[in-house]
Specification:
The chain is α+β, with helices and mostly antiparallel strands. It is built from five helices and twelve strands.
């Protein structure tokens, strides 16, 4: 017992005189453990009774990251179990087992900077891993005595613990761990019977001391290489380059520190994280496609003088009236390609003319434009010679058809009822041909002039009066739109 006290005192002394806990700078740590080993198996459950055996051990831990350590854990224990048996008389147990156990464990630390701070005074942890277990058992049970039964088996190991940090180099831990060998014979009884359903498992409850060897370093709280007493910026974030005074660099002297400056070599503005905005349009230069000209955000910093949504640098029609629909080149859209922008075109899907606001000519429009009266061409009795009023009308028709090649005219010849029907039919034909001939002399093709003649069969007025007969000696006409092939 005196030797154990000396060992424990030595460990504590080492811990107090060291200066760093296990961390990224001091990655190795060692520990000593003292406790009890308790049995739960085929005969009884003696967990947390603290009277069946003792355990001593040692561990070596390697820091991996703020959350995990890798640990090698060795312990020896003597488990002494005696019980009348939970199965009732006459079953009972009285055995001793010497066990040597070596495990490779992962240690999860709650003081990882996410849950608790890394320098927390109280820091819980979890252990999990596997290893090998050698046991030497002797004793007696319901089947009789057994002596020095040696077993070597794999085992699972898991536990929970709590570290109390004594100094930056030493901590005391309280730990409860379950060791489950992959065998059921340590207690000397593993019969294949209905009652035997519990493998032998052991609970290690221990107190440990961890120390981290390492030389003391001058204090540098922010780890920037400048000791605290000389550091004018003692809270610099980790990894940030600093000057001789321990302050972050500002290479371009724009008031934005390099580690916060997205453009550290070019003087910029704080609102743009240290990047410049040369044209002061609110768009930093590295995102501005026109960095030297004041522009708008919607066009990535480029101007749009006519406000049509196409940047001036891409606009082929830079003076488009406001509100006009434009194509990707900034020019007014003209869907029917009639030279009239859709924004002005009353018939944007049909080729039209400007005087009709982009709509195409129709018969009534032409009649109105050229002031064609649509009165018949009248003739004297038994004559097919044009009268002055008829010539004036044909002039207007000729002009209209010359300017509008998609239209033609139809002449319908008529006569009064004086004379034979055959004679009057030929006379009405001659009258229609007279009108046709006049237009052909004006340059119109025959294909654009249709003829019909009806003789005396379709009088417009009563043939029994002189006035009525005069109105029946006529050629009627109609304009029509020609078929497009």
């Amino acid at each position: 017992m005196t030797k154990r006290i000396l060992v424990l005192a030595t460990v504590l002394l080492l811990g107090i005189t060291a200066s760093f806990a296990q961390n990224a700078d001091n990655k190795w740590g060692v520990g000593l453990h003292f406790g009890v080993m308790e049995y739960n198996g085929d005969y009884s459950n003696q967990f947390y009774s603290f009277g069946q055996g003792y355990a001593v051990g040692a561990s070596v831990a390697r820091y991996l990251n703020p959350s995990f350590d890798l640990m090698g854990h060795y312990f020896y224990d003597m488990s002494h179990a005696h019980d009348a048996g939970r199965l009732g008389a006459p079953t009972w147990v009285n055995f001793k087992a010497h066990m040597y156990n070596l495990n490779l464990l992962a240690k999860y630390k709650f003081n990882n900077g996410y849950i608790l701070s890394e320098d927390a005074i109280l820091a819980p942890y979890l252990l999990a891993g596997l290893g090998g277990n050698q046991s030497i058992s002797s004793g007696e049970n319901a089947d009789g005595p057994f002596t020095d039964e040696k077993l070597l088996a794999l085992n699972l190991y898991g536990g929970v613990g709590l570290n109390l940090r004594v100094s930056r180099a030493v901590s005391v831990s309280v730990q409860s761990s379950l060791m489950a060998p992959m065998t059921d014979k340590i207690d000397g009884w593993a019969p294949d019977v209905e009652q035997n359903k519990t493998n032998d498992v052991f609970l290690e409850n221990s107190v440990g001391v961890y120390i981290t060897p390492g030389k003391a370093k001058k204090k540098d709280a922010d780890g920037d290489g400048v000791v605290d007493k000389l550091d004018k910026c003692p809270n610099t974030p980790a990894g940030v380059p600093v000057d001789a005074n321990g302050c972050p660099l500002d290479t371009d002297q724009d008031g934005v520190l390099d580690y916060q400056d997205e453009c550290p070599t070019v003087a910029g503005m704080k609102e743009f994280n240290g990047c410049p905005d040369t044209d002061r349009d609110g768009i930093q230069d590295k995102l501005d496609e026109c960095p030297d000209v004041f522009g708008i955000a919607a066009l990535k910093g480029c101007p749009d003088a006519d406000g049509d949504g196409v940047a001036d640098k891409d606009d082929r029609c830079p003076n488009t009236p406001k509100g006009y629909k434009v194509d990707r080149f900034g020019c007014p859209v003209d869907a029917d390609r009639d030279g009239i922008p859709d924004s002005e075109d009353a018939c944007p899907d049909k080729v039209g003319v400007s005087e009709l606001k982009g709509c195409p000519f129709d018969v009534q429009t032409i009649i109105a434009k050229y002031q064609i009266s649509m009165k018949p061409l009248y003739f004297d009795f038994d004559s097919y010679k044009l009268q002055p009023e008829g010539i004036e009308t044909l002039e207007k028709i000729a002009k209209a058809l010359s300017n509008h090649s998609d239209f033609g005219v139809q002449f319908d010849g008529h006569a009064d009822y004086i004379g034979s029907e055959d004679y009057n039919l030929k006379l009405s034909e001659s009258r229609a041909n007279t009108a046709k001939g006049y237009l052909m002399n004006k340059g119109l093709s025959a294909e654009r002039i249709r003829l019909q003649y009806f003789g005396e069969t379709k009088p417009a007025q009563n043939n029994k009066t002189k006035e009525g007969r005069a109105l029946n000696r006529r050629v009627e006409y109609n304009l029509y739109e020609m078929d497009k092939k």
